[in-house]
Amino acid sequence: MRCYKNLFVISVTYLIIVFFIGCSGTSLQTKDLLMSPKIDLVNYALSSNGSTAESPDNSPDHPPSAVIDGDTSSLNWDNGGGWEGSLSYLRSNEPLKRSYVQINLPSKRQVKQIVVYTLDSQKYPASKYGLRTYNVEYWHGTGWARIDAIEGKPSTGKIKSDRLSTVESNVSGKIVHNIKGELITDKIRLVPLLSNDTEKDYDLTSFGGRPIFNISGSAKVIEIQVWCYPSVLEPVAFEEQANLSLVGKSQLSADEKAIRSILNNYKQGYDNEDIKLVMSGFADDFTTLDGKSKVDIEKNATKFFEDYSSINLTFRDIRIDIATSADSATIAANYTLECVSRTDNNIRRRNDTLVFNFHKDTDLNWKIKSAK
After folding, report:
1. Would you place residue 187 in the very low, low, confident or very high pLDDT band (cuts 50, 70, 90)?
2. Which residue did the predictor score with more confidence, 214 or 119?
3. Which DSSP string do the residues of 40-83 spell out, in sequence order?
4. Mean pLDDT, rounded, for 194-212
5. Which CATH number fits domain 42-228: 3.40.720.10, 3.40.50.11890, 2.60.120.260, 3.40.50.970?
6. Residue ranges, CATH 3.10.450.50, the chain
């Protein structure tokens, strides 16, 4: 594990282009740069943490409250453990009649991971009775949207990135969803589409010509965990990232807007793992304090993207100081960097400060000249 941590720190150091200087003026040691591989997240989906659960259509013997009671075992299924939802929408294929189980969190939280436990025991194996295909959705204030997630372990289901389903062809009892980017919400719901015991037999045709089927099988969910940060991190407003506001000033100058635009492209490059966008603001003769060039930075950034996924970079407290000559500037910003290791699937997170020096080139375009 120590090897993985050091690799992460080295990659982050070059990608962020921040060189941490102590009070004595010397670089901090590698051990001081290590990020914890795990975050102390809280499962706010638990009823004991103030959450509630609801469903418009479920078996009375398997209520929605069972998915937030903290019991992830399937052994109590015959005695009322877990939630059982209907798949009757398949009878005439009417999406608006889909069942769901919804979790109402006690307040808005920043969600980082959702774990779904479907029925899976020796008597009722997931491959025969568990959820096969479903959506995970969040409430964004005016409606529901499917969550963009990446697959975690353990899971043998296939997590998709299309508009049809979040997971398909699942045969595992536990499916882990690591959230991509920043997601703040107070409602999460699971919408089942198919179970592994679903059978659809033709019954008759309605007057409108629509086929009607007999449906067997049901959606069986044992527990849903919604892992969040203990407190909601204040998101950076889009206006600030898009250079539309600055503390202490009512209007930005053209130079300030241009510099903030470069910083925003840098952030978007991280979030989308787009190396060209990350490097777009760097001058060709960029150098670091220890002599690294633009080419060195690009190589290390590319390696970083190979080793880590679900990258999310957030800037706060951006300050821009433009020289009286108007051809150079220094920016300082606090940042939070989060990502998921492709090696061990653990989340990494770091808070620190970034400092860039900008300079206008011969075409009067701002470029990142160096970093402190």
Report:
1. very high
2. 119
3. --EETTSGGGT-EEE-SSB-TTS-GGGGGSS---STTGGGT-SE
4. 67
5. 2.60.120.260
6. 2-38+233-371
